[in-house]
């Protein structure tokens, strides 16, 4: 597997960075994950725009986002990812420097890593849905930044697995904000609802696609908080992300949603999403 590190295309085993890397020491870095279908990245420009927003928000000195797009395309070709499903992973850190909490000296080069890899979608979950548990949102209040500081996400995703569920939904002040690596949607009175964009959620690219598709096919939407207390009234629930696409949620804390199978609106959105993928 060929990856990109700091200007070079190298075998993955040869892509080495210093133990002084700021992301290794402080989680001082940001990332992106882009989905490719048949070698074509979906919404690459939007992902690069969000990467730029993350880089700017944490004040990493990097601006060459066009190169990242070109690198991603070259990695797809070099790693023969031109058919089937693949992911592009991008990470930009504040570079390598002796461990001091403040920023390293001006001119310290960021570490830039891009990899392309095959991806196996979880077809069973897409078809039959997942079960989730509700967990306290112990994250910071800049969840809009796609930071590599993902320890709360890791711990809660594992807690879900440990109790036999598939994933966890973060609850902050009584509101179901998002999943450990996904945005969260509910259908209430036929209206597709998701948390407004805010500093407590990541502005998901798939989330935007879903809202766009709903408008196109005539499904009502609203961007409003989903209260934990509303969850028993949800007709349908689903989670969205680059990796999960539109994954139905059929159980919350062991209690079935609706009749326990993916609902008709979720199915309609999944279908519209796959049609979009096929035509783009
Ligand atoms: N995560 N919220 C969080 C906390 C996420 O980590 C993600 C994606 C999303 C959905 O965003 P998008 O639709 O742009 O993928 C929402 C990626 C896939 C990951 O960490 O692997």
Question: What does the secondary structure layout of this molecule look like, with pairings?
Answer:
Blueprint: E1 2-5, E2 8-11, H1 22-26, E3 29-37, E4 40-41, H2 44-57, H3 65-78, E5 85-93, E6 111-118, H4 123-128, E7 130-136, H5 151-162, E8 167-172, E9 175-179, E10 183-188, E11 191-194, H6 205-217, E12 221-223, E13 236-241, E14 245-252, E15 255-256, H7 264-279
Parallel strand pairs: 7-8, 7-14, 11-12
Antiparallel strand pairs: 1-2, 1-6, 3-4, 3-5, 5-6, 8-9, 10-11, 10-13, 13-14, 14-15
Structure description:
This protein has 280 residues and is α+β, with helices and mostly antiparallel strands. The chain has helices spanning 22-26, 44-57, 65-78, 123-128, 151-162, 205-217, 264-279; strands at 2-5, 8-11, 29-37, 40-41, 85-93, 111-118, 130-136, 167-172, 175-179, 183-188, 191-194, 221-223, 236-241, 245-252, 255-256. The longest helix has 16 residues, at 264-279. Residues 33, 178, 181-183, 202, 204-207, 240-243 line the site of N-(5'-phosphopyridoxyl)-D-alanine (PDD). The site of N-(5'-phosphopyridoxyl)-D-alanine has 14 residues, from α6 and β13.
Q: What does this entry show, briefly?
A:
Helices cover 29% and strands 30% of the residues. The protein is built from seven helices and 15 strands.
